[in-house]
Amino acid sequence: MTDATPPPGCPAHSGAVALSGLEYQQTPSELYRSLRREHGAIAPVLLDGDIPAWLVLGYPEVTYVTSHDELFARDSRRWNQWEHIPADWPLMPFVGYQPSVLFTEGAEHQRRAGVITEALEEVDQFELARDCERIADQLIDAFAGSGRAELMAAFAHALPMRAAVQFCGMPAGSTDTEQLVDDLRISLDAAEGDDPVAAYGRVGARIQQLVKEKRESPGPDVTSRMLAHPAGLTDEEVVQDLISVIAAAQQPTANWICNTLRLLLTDERFALNVSGGRLSVGQALNEVLWLDTPTQNFIGRWAVRDTQLGGRQIRAGDCLVLGLAAANTDPQIWPESQVGAENSAHLSFSNGEHRCPYPAPLLADVIARTAVETLLERLPDLVLAVEPQELTWRPSIWMRGLTSLPVQFTPVSH
């Protein structure tokens, strides 16, 4: 057992704030403001089960951490807290080491990320937009006649998932594809009564099967391109990295779509202009990345050795949580607290070697933009079915997404 009183500068030192409570989940920006006031750019926090970590709140500090892999690395096996972590720890899916591109470092990371980058670069953006429009039309057809819908489940979550599994080479509309889409939803975002562990097992098995099929019979898809890449990834490496690609394409993009629709439906600056043109949709998408970024906090980086950061003593093996949402609203970069909608220097796709591989943000933008524009074109009188203040955010300090987005509109037959 360690001594009950941690040394000064240790993350568990007095003043550490629990990141797992309910208090700030609807308004995390207040938490970031109070932490910044009390602790500056680096705040001591407690993860689930009172596990100590550092939350990096400042824009320059997040940029520094993500740009210096030699000091703050991704391999979570460095963590100095493993002896205190139970096997069923809620954050284990995010920090438990897996042999995927997410946890690799150095030359191995460049090799793995390079394969993903080149495979995604070949995705035709016009074709992807056409596919997304077709998927959007199919989803809208299912509820257009009723005049009401809950857009999180019926639209925002389903669309990027279908788009992602299709560009990875799964056939559109097959029972098999629909089952994978459902299992991905459960493993990433389990509802009451779901078994995320079992669902994740089925996802792994189905992606393994896909890799086997594409090894035997390649096609014009991301999986086949990854398998054919001269870097020579093993089937298991391709399976791990495909799951990372699909998961990254799904939940953050779904929340991006929904958070943007919320902004368009509740903010009069946009409501006046949306029907008049596409420009405001692009502005809304960008503003959401600054102010309601889908990935609020990302766990994390692990200190390679003792070092200083933001006036704090960081010890070898300490965990740093990247406060992407806090950094995006850092008063140092927005002294007037006015976010410039045209500026895209936000950290929503992270930064440095481990940021989203280059084409991924562009593809996510195509998916999100097409989803929002198609919905507004098909249902031009779309309005919220509840008062704006009745909308609630999911109870998560990691993701920023609504629990539901109920809307109403004039029923249309298709």
TrEMBL record:
SUPFAM superfamilies named among the record's database cross-references: Cytochrome P450
InterPro entries assigned: Cyt_P450_B, Cyt_P450_sf
Superkingdom: Bacteria
PANTHER family xref list: CYTOCHROME P450 YJIB-RELATED, P450, PUTATIVE (EUROFUNG)-RELATED
Record family assignment: Belongs to the cytochrome P450 family.
Name used for this protein in its record: Cytochrome P450
Species, as recorded: Streptomyces aureus
